Amino acid sequence: xxxxxxxxxxxxxxxxxxxxxxxxxxxxDIMLPGLADIGAELSVSExxxxxxIITALFLGFGLGMLFAGPLSDSFGRRPIIFLGYAVFIxxxxxxxxxxxxxxxxxxxxxxxxxxxxxxxVTVALVRDGYAGRGMAYIMSFIMAVFVLVPMIAPAIxxxxxxxxxxxxxxxxxxxxxxxxxxxxxxxxxxxxxTELRRPFSFASFYDGTKQVLASRIAVGYTLAIGxxxxxxxxxxxxxxxxxxxxxxxxxxxxxxxAIAAFSMGFA
Length: 267
Hints:
The protein is mostly helical. It has helices at residues 10-29, 35-41, 52-75, 77-97, 101-129, 132-163, 167-187, 202-213, 216-246, 253-266. The relative contact order is 0.16.
């Protein structure tokens, strides 16, 4: 699909990038109200096993983030974003039709791998086109959306589940990913010219990783962020059980979750 000759305006660019990033945030939280239903229908051995639906996504996300950036530097921004969306939609399809727990987890891992591409490469897109205060403004808006979406995602998920069922949450995720991919394909041109691309090789990937690990500052910050993010994943995975089963939140779970998300975002 060819892009239009004229690139999008800054306003459209910001909205497009924010929409692409919001899908990543949405995919982590939208099925929280349905975790118990998913676990029951797929016959998990322990109630806590339903939490792997969240952790499997982040496992794939972490794997995808390792390669999305270097690949986009080698092959361009657009191909890697399209590849990411294709993998994400495939994962959504598997999770939507699965009759087994193993296929559900595989689908979630694929969703994480696919979601990593738009999450990582959109930052490169902003960096390619903007610098200084302009880049800071766009990134601050995008991060605001990234914080806001998790506040409303469980409410959207609960509405979809009430109207049709938990499988349709994955259909919804796949549909909005397809919309984002089409919008991106039509309106956003390639931002990395051929002359600036760097050949990808596992040797260069290994060398870059070794350089990062050789820096105590980089390793220290990475460990700190990892501990913070690990605690957040633990909270996210257990939130539905804690609010619904321990505190009998029932249908008010999305509201309580939104309040907690707002407080974390405000902090």
